[in-house]
Amino acid sequence: MSILKFLGLDPARTRAASAETETVRKITRALDALEPERARFIAAFAYLLSRVARADLVITDVETREMERLVMQRGRLPEEQALIVVQMAKTQTILFGGTENYLVTREFNHLATAEQKIALLDCLFAVSAADGSISAVEDNEIRQIADELRIERAELLGVRARYREYLAVLQKPPEPGA
Question: Are 82 and 88 in contact (CB under 8 A)?
Fold first, then answer.
């Protein structure tokens, strides 16, 4: 074994890590190249998706994949950028969720049109339903976000009705012993 490998300074590994770091830098520069208002919109959008996914204190892999898909689709971002945006949003939600939730929602409220707010609700329900069930905690978090965005109750219920089959409170309880 060489001394470099022993010290964790294997040249091959250092080159690979450097290439990975450069990839992250390129993606970050591309995000920086977005117009500031669009970047703020996408960041707030991703954060709100994470807020709902984390409402039950666990963000599952299937919820993460759904968030990535939605950020790619709605944010019109390449997959690499969407992955980074979602990861950053998840981290921020975990670290600062309690204090940032209202502030980010308020920012989204200022940036989004009425149609974009309704589209967000649909995305929030889609993320919650990704694992096959929308828990009462997730449903309540979506209601809270809708209130913070000043969305009329009828509009919320209209979107929610499309996800009726996933609402845990309306699902049949499992058979005993099954």
Answer: no
Are the C-beta atoms of 107 and 44 separated by less than 8 Å? yes
- Token digits for 35? 């117009």
Contact, 103 vs 93, CB < 8 A?
A: no
In terms of C-beta density within 10 A (0-12 exposed, 13-18 middle, 19 or more buried), how is residue 140 classed? exposed
- Return the C-alpha torsion angle 41, 47, 48, 52, nearest 10: 160
Considering only CA atoms, which of 144, 109, 107 is closest in space to residue 124? 144
Structure tokens given for 160 = 């929610």
Query: Is it the case that residue 163 has pLDDT exceeding 80?
Result: yes
- pLDDT > 80? residue 109: yes
Q: What is the rounded average pLDDT of the residues 108-124? A: 96
Q: What is the second-level CATH architecture of the domain 22-164?
A: Orthogonal Bundle (1.10)
